[in-house]
Amino acid sequence: MFPSFCERRKRSGEWVDWQVRLHKAICSSSAKSSMVTISVFTIVILADSLLAGTDTSAVTLEWAMSNLLNHPHILKKARAELDSQIGQEKLVEEAEVSRLHYVQNIISETLRLYPAAPLLVPHMSSTDCTIGGYDVPKTRKVWDDAISFKPERYESGKENTHKLLPFGIGRRACPGAGLAQRAIGLTLASLIQCFEWERVSMEEVDMAEGNGISMPKAVALEAMCKARPIMNKFLPVSSDDI
Ligand code: HEM
Q1: For the whole model, what pTM was predicted?
Q2: Which candidate, 198, 188, 185, places its Cα nearest to that of 71?
Q3: CB 3.0–4.6 Å: which of 4, 118, 181, 218 could bond 208 by disulfide?
Q4: Nearest CA to 186 among 56, 63, 98, 76?
Q5: What is the pLDDT of residue 2?
Q6: What is the pLDDT of residue 76?
Q7: pLDDT tens for residues 202-234?
Q8: CATH of the domain spanning 1-120+162-213, picked from 1.10.630.10, 3.90.1150.180, 1.20.1050.10, 3.90.190.10
Q9: How far is the CA of 226 from the centre of ligand 1 (A)?
């Protein structure tokens, strides 16, 4: 179901070259108008945000769906949440995503295990020490059962949520965090509300990581889907034909 992002990833190198060339051209330009320079930079910043925002969000969605297909009981629980909170009479809307706690926990757990921007090198102290007058204790275990996919771990209160920093922290933190969480939340919720999802075979979805800055999957996700009753309201054909 999901298109392969490999081709786009190959092309992203060309985009960086283009930006470097543009930057050089602006710096060496004899253009007097600062307005032109500002406009060009505004376009570059907007384009940067688009670039930083699209692949990261798409990849996170692909990891989230892969995890759900490998854990059908979690997918079932998410569907039950959507059915009880939204139902099958109308499509889920952005403002309603904040009510879908379990779907949000699925996204948090996906970002914990498969962060789309794994740039923040993990920090931990191997022993009790003092740095610049501050006592830094030896790092204790951060996550229980760290390698398991368990959205339920965020149900115990804020403690686990605060340990999660997939968007960084401080002044350089991701400016698109809010947008990403809304966009991914709404898209994932819509996919679960509108379709039944299954793996293409009995084999589990391959969760190997590929190469690339936004942590792509090594093997693009393929899945089967069947329209749920709500789609009859929006599709002109019978759901049996899909
Ligand atoms: C799942 C989605 C996303 C993840 C996991 C993510 C993660 C991150 C991380 C870890 C950083 C580096 C923070 C640091 O250096 O401490 C970052 C920076 C950035 N992100 Fe995101 N991001 C996502 C989506 C978005 C979206 C949707 C946008 C824009 C619409 C965006 C725009 C940016 C920009 C412009 C920066 C550079 C900020 C700077 O260097 O000052 N990101 N992101």
Answers
A1: 0.80
A2: 198
A3: 218
A4: 98
A5: 37
A6: 98
A7: 999 999 999 888 889 999 999 999 999 999 887
A8: 1.10.630.10
A9: 34
